[in-house]
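Q: I'm building a small set of examples for a reading group on sequence design. Run inverse folding on the following structure and report the sequence directly after it, with nothing in between.
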């Protein structure tokens, strides 16, 4: 005890010092961001009208990205659709800035993150309102999906980011015991990110944070469906970078359509894409011309499995939340519900009651549980999926209600809908819906649930619920997805130390977590002499040029000495190796004396 007592005291003193150090406020400067043109009521007079986008065609023939509120159809303004030459100019500027930023210290990078975090916490309502106006989601959904996830990523990077970017030492194996081996993580250059509309704040900040913290520059093409918010969020990033003395143009946000995205892919050193499988394949083809590495997150059709031993009311609440969050805008949302037949009726009843209480409407004009669909003509597509299911025997058992909708915005809303008697011949169980629909199907055994969950071309995530955690874990382990949650859904995304991504048509590669951070790096393997200059690497004489007559026999014995399966054979081979070296050395000495 006398020996351990001083160590215990030292440990307690160290812990107390760390705690007290945490209480010391960090000096984080505030930043000013111009919000005059994004706050409600301050819009320019020429933009204060209802915008009716042309149906049946895209805007890609135009030179402008037109922006409007999907929940009210109020016009927000427009942004230029950049040409390929303009994109190349922006990337060139970012590359020039990145050569300076690559030499920045982790201290400077952490200060950048702290400034962002401070601004986000102090301006949560503004950030959520901008996201709500541009995509139609509610303030609560914006806070959950935009603010919390981004703050979690920043705090993880502050806590662990430097650790995972420092050189990592590895074992050298038997033949290189006299060497030291490590992995170094260097910036790639400029990352190009093409992001979707569903989480405009987080989808901009997520790749930007990883890229900038790892020493890269980044150019982000925001979705044409969320350009207004993305360009405002860019101002926050610019102000924070300027506050830490970062070079201009290190981060850029560009707007446009397919042509703009294609030009970005061919100009950068790494591509991160969040979108559909069809566009993802085009990204890959374009990236292949210059062998640019690609990370693809292509959506999902996530399974939500409910065993018979669950707390049905609780799981029903989780099911509705994840299906309806952001009006189905959650790219990791549940879209297929498999419920054990013993609790099927009670689960459907609970879910139906909740859905009937849900009201949808313009999120900033009243207290609504669900907002609008972001994309034009999405409600028509959702109704076609529902009609296909009804024609094949499915039944609607519950629908939510609408609040006050303006005449021009009616098509931007879809009522939350519960469908039963579904099966896998129906499109609603195979195609990514991106809508507030809960199709519920029965299963009898765990094996059947696993088979149904794996019967999909997507493989992003899944959630399994059971009163027996071991059982839920076992089911989840057999579902072929990149993400799984046990007795929860999509919770893995709040654990920012974990990678995010899928398999099959959900894409490949990972962002977030250690893997996502290092994916923004040139991963370099380095080997050097461990005891330089006292022990230097030399080629053994038997295999020096010209190779001696016994060169192969020497190499054969060396292999067995290093990797033989039993100690006797290895010792015998070692004696042969030492003997060969001795004979070569003595022969060399005799040759020198005769000379």
């Amino acid at each position: 005890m006398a020996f351990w007592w001083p160590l215990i005291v030292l440990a307690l003193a160290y812990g107390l010092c760390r705690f007290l150090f945490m209480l010391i406020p960090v000096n984080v400067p505030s930043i000013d961001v111009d919000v005059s043109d994004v706050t409600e009521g301050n819009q320019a007079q020429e933009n204060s009208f209802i915008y009716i986008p042309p149906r049946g065609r895209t805007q890609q023939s135009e030179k402008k990205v037109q922006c409007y509120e999907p929940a009210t159809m109020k016009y927000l303004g427009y942004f230029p659709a950049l040409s390929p030459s303009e994109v190349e100019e922006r990337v060139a500027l970012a590359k020039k800035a990145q050569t300076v930023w690559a030499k920045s210290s982790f201290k400077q990078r952490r200060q950048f993150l702290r400034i962002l975090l401070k601004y986000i916490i102090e301006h949560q309502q503004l950030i959520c309102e901008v996201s709500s106006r541009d995509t139609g989601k509610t303030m609560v959904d914006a806070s959950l999906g935009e603010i919390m996830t981004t703050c979690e990523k920043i705090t993880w990077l502050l806590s662990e980011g430097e650790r995972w970017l420092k050189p990592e030492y590895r074992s050298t194996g038997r033949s290189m015991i006299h060497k030291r081996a490590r992995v170094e993580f260097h910036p790639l250059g400029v990352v190009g990110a093409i992001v979707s509309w569903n989480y405009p704040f987080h989808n901009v900040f997520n790749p930007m944070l990883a890229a900038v913290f790892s020493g890269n520059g980044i150019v982000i093409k925001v979705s044409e469906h969320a350009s207004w918010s993305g360009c405002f969020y860019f101002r926050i990033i610019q102000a924070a970078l300027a506050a830490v003395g970062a070079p201009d143009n290190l981060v850029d946000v560009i707007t446009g359509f397919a042509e703009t995205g294609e030009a970005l892919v061919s100009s950068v050193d790494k591509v991160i894409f969040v979108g559909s499988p069809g566009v993802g394949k085009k990204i890959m083809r374009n990236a292949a011309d210059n062998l640019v590495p690609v990370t693809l997150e292509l959506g999902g059709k996530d399974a939500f499995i409910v065993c018979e031993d669950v707390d049905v009311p609780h799981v029903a609440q989780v099911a509705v939340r994840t299906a309806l969050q952001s009006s189905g805008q959650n790219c990791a949302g549940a879209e297929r519900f498999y419920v054990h037949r013993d609790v099927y009726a009670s689960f459907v009843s609970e879910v139906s009651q909740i859905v009937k209480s849900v009201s949808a409407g313009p999120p900033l004009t009243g207290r609504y549980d669900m907002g609008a669909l972001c994309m034009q003509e999405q409600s028509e597509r959702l109704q076609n999926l529902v009609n296909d299911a009804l024609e094949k025997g499915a039944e609607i058992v519950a629908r939510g209600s609408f609040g006050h909708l303006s005449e021009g915005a009616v098509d931007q809303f879809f009522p939350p809908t519960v469908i039963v008697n579904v099966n896998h011949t129906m499109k609603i169980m195979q195609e990514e819906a991106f809508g507030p629909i809960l199709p519920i199907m029965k299963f009898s055994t765990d094996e059947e649930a696993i088979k149904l969950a794996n019967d999909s071309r997507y493989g992003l995530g899944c959630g399994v619920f059971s009163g027996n955690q071991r059982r839920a874990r076992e089911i989840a382990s057999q579902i072929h997805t990149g993400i799984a949650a046990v007795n929860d859904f999509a919770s893995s995304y709040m654990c920012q130390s974990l990678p995010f991504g899928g398999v099959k048509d959900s894409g490949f590669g990972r962002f977030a977590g250690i893997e996502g951070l290092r994916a923004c790096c040139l991963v370099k393997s380095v080997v050097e002499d461990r005891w330089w200059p006292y022990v230097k690497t030399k080629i053994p004489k038997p295999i020096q040029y010209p190779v001696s007559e016994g060169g192969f026999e020497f190499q054969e014995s060396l292999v067995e000495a290093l990797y033989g399966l039993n100690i006797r054979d290895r010792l015998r081979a070692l004696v042969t190796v030492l003997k060969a070296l001795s004979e070569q050395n003595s022969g060399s000495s005799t040759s020198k004396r005769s000379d």
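The chain is about 40% helix and 15% strand.
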